[in-house]
Write a structure and sequence with these properties.
This protein is of the alpha/beta class and about 375 residues long. The protein folds into 2 domains: about 10-180, Rossmann fold (3-Layer(aba) Sandwich), CATH 3.40.50.1970; about 185-380, Dehydroquinate synthase-like, alpha domain (Up-down Bundle). It contains 15 helices and 9 strands. It has helices spanning about 20-25, 40-45, 50-55, 75-85, 95-110, 185-205, 210-230, 235-255, 260-270, 275-290, 295-300, 315-330, 350-355, 360-365, 370-380; strands at about 10-15, 30-35, 60-65, 90-95, 120, 130-135, 150-155, 160-165, 170-175. The strands form 2 sheets. Strands 1-9-6-4-2-3 form a 6-stranded parallel β-sheet, sandwiched between helices. The model has no long low-confidence stretch (mean pLDDT about 95).
């Protein structure tokens, strides 16, 4: 089978990297930009060094700060209008996955005719958008290196994806200093999300030797540092490792895809407003237990980057140890472990399972064929 590997063409990394943004924008010949972010990022003071660097480079700056968590696709229209009013020629996404996804989507909607619903799916965007620079403020989504944007459709109670090479930014800037003030629970939820990206890309049917390399390093960095970043948030070395791990996981899943964990997370996130990383974490052990039969050797080999001793164990027993390590990690960083904690009940399962089966884009990557009855059983196990 033919495989294609691609990623963001330019990645600028390291503490203090955001202060290079003026030079990056000037190198692209841009004089007017729109920064797309949310009010939490602004109130945390994270935009100040970026504005200062752009001002020093004599770049005119406008701001769209109305991005919401798990943003509705309608937010894109507001961002597009702000970009047009400000005559911006580039969009800069600053924040977690939500601002970056709104940035990517708005950039292509500025050059392509709507409606946005026509572009949900794979390779449906006709032409490139305005150039973008993406700056993550969490170590989680990896959106800065993926051609994917996820938006909420409240009418259908689903999260939907746009996948297009035109969503790649011109530049990604990774600066772990921007994550030093993240609260422990946000660190945990976003960090586990990144870890799940790496696990799913590694076990996807589309995995290759190249994506496996990125996944293994990502798991080592994320699993090895998430506890420290959670417990001691000002540890810059741990924060840097987390940001690099999230980026590597993003590169991997942009090419190999994520699988059923995300397919299960989307309906519960949309219906019960469970934060994305937590929704993934709730489903991860149960989906691994189901999926392992699809490729026992691959799931067992996760013991390596998890640093699990496997001497004398058969492969399914090794998978059990991997699941136990994941459960222990979730416990250590105090992530919820039951759907019931968010109000999910037995009566909701048929509707949620129907939602899973609609996420065909991700189920196509899954290492084990999933039926509607399987989906119901997995949700029940997570209750």
């Amino acid at each position: 089978m033919v495989r294609v590997f691609s990623t963001t063409p330019r990645i600028v990394m390291g503490p203090g990297a955001v202060r290079t943004i003026g030079a990056e924008v000037k190198a692209l010949g841009i004089k007017r930009v729109l920064i797309v972010t949310d009010r939490g990022v602004i109130s945390a003071g994270l935009m100040k060094p970026i504005e200062e660097a752009l001002k020093a480079a004599r770049v005119q700056v406008a701001v769209f700060d109305r991005v919401e968590p798990d943003p509705r696709y309608e937010i894109v229209a507001d961002c597009v209008q702000t970009a047009r009013n400000s005559k911006a020629r580039m969009l800069i996404g600053l924040g977690g996955g939500s601002p970056m996804d709104i940035t990517k989507t708005s950039a292509v909607m500025l050059t392509n005719k709507g409606p946005i619903g026509a572009y949900f799916g794979i390779n449906l965007v006709p032409k490139p958008g305005l150039p973008t620079i993406l700056i993550p403020t969490t170590a989680g989504t990896g959106s800065e290196v993926t051609p994917i944007a996820i938006l909420s459709d409240e009418g259908e109670k689903l999260k939907k994806g746009i996948v297009s090479p035109y969503l790649y930014p011109a530049v990604s800037i990774l600066d772990a200093e921007l994550t030093l003030g993240l609260p422990p629970q946000v660190t945990a939820a976003t960090g586990i999300d990144a870890l799940i990206h790496a696990i799913e890309a590694y076990t996807s049917v589309n995995a290759t030797a190249i994506t496996d390399m990125y996944c293994i390093k990502a798991i080592e960095l994320l699993y090895g540092n998430i506890r420290t970043a959670y417990a001691k948030g000002d540890n810059l070395a741990a924060r840097t490792a987390m940001m690099e791990g999230a980026m590597l996981a993003g590169i991997a899943f942009a090419n190999a895809g994520v699988t059923a964990v995300h397919a299960f997370a989307y309906p519960i996130g949309a219906e019960f407003h469970i934060p994305h990383g937590i929704a993934n974490s709730l489903m991860l052990p149960h989906v691994i237990r189901f999926n392992a039969l699809g490729n026992v050797a691959k799931f067992a080999s996760l013991a390596g980057p998890f640093e699990i001793s496997v001497q004398g164990l058969e492969k399914l027993a090794i998978v059990d140890k991997v699941i136990a390590a994941i459960d222990r990690l979730a416990e250590d960083v105090r992530l919820p472990n039951r759907l019931a904690d968010f109000g999910v009940k037995e009566e909701h399962i048929p509707m949620l399972a129907d939602g899973v089966m609609k996420v065909t884009r991700l189920l196509a990557n899954n290492p084990r064929t999933l039926t509607l009855e399987d989906a119901k059983r997995i949700y029940r196990a997570a209750l």
